[in-house]
Design brief:
The protein is of the alpha+beta class and 237 residues long. The protein has two domains: 3-71, Winged helix-like DNA-binding domain superfamily/Winged helix DNA-binding domain (Arc Repressor Mutant, subunit A); 77-231, Chorismate lyase-like (Chorismate lyase, 3-Layer(aba) Sandwich), CATH 3.40.1410.10. The protein has seven helices and ten strands. α1 (8-21) crosses α3.
């Protein structure tokens, strides 16, 4: 196809994808900034922005706020139907997992949280918020509520060294789980934590877990849609 017939933003996309496909720009390579591309290609910033935005949505690029735009690796995959440790998933890919603990405290359960955990409004719950990163790239916000009776030492754990999954599986092994998946737009605070652009969609996985018929935890896992995908496999009866 004659590229001269393509709109300018499509020509920019073609130029970038050609460099990626040829191997000139490898995964994690930082591509030129918008200003540099405007200067080098002689097109408007709006044209460059649209091309980069569409390539990000296509999964070819990753845009990290305040850092730059990088060639994307194949999207990491998290199990949809299984309950797995994100640290194990990341290290299993040969990458480094780190966790930033933002919140770890005792709270009074709101009506929604109490209902999700089979408690009464105002009863005590443990609340933790973590940001999980893969090679320093944020890939998940974990916002978790835990029933104290099932995990009494939850607040005493060092969750920068081990994930809540490890402690909870040792203390109250999961016998049942329910998953709900939604496509969402992150809040401004969540976008800042995940270092994503305002228009980037996210995947939200809400999980309720039980141990021997008793509620254990209610957690919302938020993934940047441009960097992650969820996959499940099942057999028909």
């Amino acid at each position: 196809m004659n590229t001269e017939l393509l709109p300018r933003y499509s020509r920019v996309k073609r130029m970038i994808t050609d460099r990626i496909d040829s191997g000139e720009w490898q995964p994690r390579h930082r591509i030129p900034s918008e200003s540099e591309l405007v200067r080098d290609l002689g097109v408007s910033r709006m044209t460059i922005n649209r091309a980069l935005r569409e390539l990000t949505l296509d999964g070819r690029l990753i845009r990290v706020q305040g850092v730059g735009t990088f060639v994307a690796e194949p999207k990491p995959i998290s199990a949809l139907f299984e309950v797995r440790n994100i640290a194990d998933e990341i290290t299993g890919r040969g990458h480094r997992h780190t966790s930033q603990v933002l919140t770890l405290r005792k709270e009074k359960a709101s009506t929604d949280i109490a209902q999700a955990l089979g408690l009464k409004t105002g009863e005590a719950v443990f609340h933790s918020v973590h940001v999980h990163s893969e090679d320093d790239m944020p890939v998940q916000i974990e916002d978790r509520y835990v029933v104290p009776a099932l995990a009494p030492e939850y607040l005493d754990q060092d969750f920068s060294a081990q994930t809540p999954y490890v402690y909870l599986m040792a203390t109250a092994p999961i016998s049942e789980a329910e998953h709900v998946i939604d496509a969402v737009h992150a809040t401004s605070a969540e976008r800042k934590l995940l270092k994503i652009e305002p228009n980037e969609p996210c995947l939200s996985l809400t999980r309720t877990t039980w141990s021997n018929g008793r509620h254990v935890s209610y957690v919302r896992l938020l993934y940047p849609g441009g960097r992650y995908r969820l996959r499940g496999k099942f057999k028909a009866l």
